[in-house]
Amino acid sequence: MVSRRFRNGSTPTVLLVHDAFADTGTWAGTVRAGATLGTELVAVPNPLRGLASDGHHVAAAAGAIDGPVLLVGHGYGGAVASVAATRAGNVVGLVYVAALVPVPTILSLLSARFLAALAPTVDGELYLRRADYPSVYAQDLSTVDATVAAALQRPVVAAAFDQRWDPRARVPSHYLVATADRVLDARAQYRVAAAVRATTTEVDASHAVVLSRPDSVAEVIRSALST
């Protein structure tokens, strides 16, 4: 949980919400690249327990900040950020990074190739098979980096992909489209961006864009902060 901060409210604090099959460490490059943004970047743990509970957790983190907040969500974290933005009154903008939203459900947006690479656990959670992780999720990372990311992934409750959420947050939005994404293809990303009325930017990257192109992620955040 993010501790309460006292700010003058002039520049939003940036809260980073990670994807399923990932953890807060995936934002390390973005935090480094965002060192010149003139505000604090904080990676919020995403519990990966479902949209309602995950959204409540992130909304609580945002609400603990005394000042405006810009939420940045990657993949499933985009859907969670959308939910959180409807619950926290100080969220002033959203940045979606190769992100999902429940329109109509997350499951309906995911590629067949990605779905085939998922493996269930006995507890009703989903992992991305380690052998498939580099080619499906992170094909633009080195073999070593993709293998490390696969080993560090966190599972998501399977039911999260079938959940719906409405209404949507009515705040200015930006969307970074990863054109080489094999989890959520570029056409699906543009549909999502249209659904949330987001300003779009393209980058040639895999779904692991926060790892492979953190500089591009930081630049979209910069644009959102100046909106």
UniProtKB/TrEMBL annotation:
Alphabetical keyword list: Hydrolase
Superkingdom as given in the UniProt entry: Bacteria
Limits of the AB hydrolase-1 domain: 14-220
SUPFAM superfamilies, A to Z: alpha/beta-Hydrolases
GO terms assigned for molecular function: hydrolase activity
InterPro entries: AB_hydrolase_1 (IPR000073), AB_hydrolase_fold (IPR029058), Sec-Metab_Biosynth_Hydrolase (IPR052897)
Transmembrane parts of this sequence: none
One Pfam family per UniProt: Abhydrolase_6
Protein name (Swiss-Prot/TrEMBL): Alpha/beta hydrolase
Species in which this protein is naturally found: Virgisporangium ochraceum
